[in-house]
Amino acid sequence: MQQLQELGHWAICLFILVYALATVLGIPGTVLTIAGGTVFGLVWGTFWSVIGATLGALGAFWVARYLLRD
Question: Rounded to whole angstroms, how far apart are CA atoms 63 and 54?
Answer without folding.
Answer: 14
